[in-house]
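check these tokens.
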Amino acid sequence: MFKRSIRSTDRVDKVVKLKKSYRDPAKLSKLQKSFDQSPPVGRYVAGACLPSQTRLMAADGYVRSTLTSPIVTFTVGKEGRLFAAHEDVLSLSPFFAAACRGQFLEAESKRIDLPDEEPEIFSCVLEYLYKGDYYPRLMHNKRKNSWDLEDAVSSPNPENPGGRGSVEATIYISSVGQHLLRDTVIYCAGEKYGLEELKRLALRKQGLQSGIEVSTILRSARYAYDNTPDTDSRLRAHYLALIIRCRKTFKRSGTMQTEMESGGKLFFDLFVALCNHVDDIVEMGNSKSPKTI
């Protein structure tokens, strides 16, 4: 995929550190009062600065307490890899919130089985729930006023062709038996677990990847179609726009020919998108010198 710059005018306000005074009894009394009136454990505390061992920053931007939140364990994948997370953090996902209320959950052990999930992908989901991002993180380049991926490289890794983004561009998916674009799989996980912000983040990161093989793109596009509903068109539209934009490369690809001959909804959507693209070009031309095709 070719690098697509993502610009934003949003800025995070700088944190203003308050000067501490140990000499003014009035200020000390006010500070103590603020601690005494702090919300009970387990509540959301917006913008609070609390000890890291008792609080964590969750994906919704709130600081959440972990002192009384139960630990939920997961067995993930065919090999049953173990993961653990706090229940209040998991509640950010409608899927896990329902599971923690009793659906799919063993009452005594607080355990959820996800045999069809990929452990590496699930790890990214948990990382996002706790930190609001997953590796490689999205980094803002202030000098260029653009976005890059953490540990980005200027050329694909020879051992794992993944493009400009990082060596993490692709991941082996056992259910498919092939390498797919990692951010596409994470996007589909976000769809499954009801995490819209994770989906947006994954799509944004995928737009920063480049140097991806045609076969990998087409496999990932099919995976996207198989794991997203027709009502969710963002990821699908991303692939359609990519193929149209890089049509010369795809036209020369034997993989593209094989995939098109095997058919599927992807290629009907691609046909419609191409027709719309041609119509737009004709309309632009007719506005200058009327003609038809």
Remarks:
- The beta strands are 44-45, 55-57, 63-65, 71-76, 81-86, 111-114, 138-141, 146-149, 170-173, 178-181.
- Residues 1-23, 30-55, 155-163 have pLDDT under 50 and may be disordered.
- The first strand starts at residue 44 and ends at 45.
